[in-house]
Amino acid sequence: MRILAEFAMRGRLQALFLAVAGAGSVLFCWISAAIIALVTLRKGAGEGLWLLLWALLPAGTVAFVFGDSGPLALLLATTALALVLRYTVSLSLTVLVATGIAVVAGLATLLFGEAYLAQMVDMFDQFLGSLEETYFQDRETAVQLPRPVPVQIAGMLGAGTATMGVLCLLLARYWQAALYNPGGFGAEFRALRYPVGVSGALVLAGLVAATLGLAYRTWAMMFFIPLSFAGLALVHARAASRGSSSGWLSVFYVAWVVFDPVKLVVVMFAIADSWFNFRQRWGGPGGPPANDGRRDDTG
Q: Which residues, including other chains, have CB under 8 Å from residue 95's CB and lie 6 or more apart?
């Protein structure tokens, strides 16, 4: 993966090639988003927005022809986050902004993606219907699995876009540190945490959204995105303080992806960390860097 970053930073045309090549693909648009973020972080808003404008051509074509705005939304979300990180030099604030991006993406999908949401509803209906016929046809009473509604799907897409945007940004930040400041990204990410007021506001907003009904549970997820990444940062900080191997983290991430209770535990530890600041108690390499994660490699 580092080879891609090195190739992109060789010159403007190389970065343009990578940014445009994957922009129209659902499978590879994350690479284009990360390349644009890397250029934005390293060379500034002008260069990053120039790449974005070219990358929007294939992404916009996919959205217009096929109705899939996923690549377009990811490019815009990642670039916005990169601009925030570039000018605030605060990873915690940048990840917090992802919640707002998730809400905007969800609302935009509701307003402008009616046809796409209808396709998604039909797709889920067919998929769940096939599950009912395959696994529940022998039961005496028919089983009706719940079908998602457009509002629910829009919230899911908004949360997914923001989460992927943060992941693409973190990849770009990793590339930047690997090329110009080895080890800087690890210290910056492990220091990610939120004060009590911020974590409390996020939890309260998420609970309020959840009380609006089942369809808005996916919208509630948006407010837990920053806490999820803060929890993951806490896990990395703990691993660093104990000198744990990367294999332990690999096992953890497999469990985090597969089992939903693990995701909930990670969020709960992030909330607890807002109160107790576990990193200061642990000390060692897992603690926050002296410069609070601010970097000097953005030039």
A: 166, 192, 225, 226, 229, 230
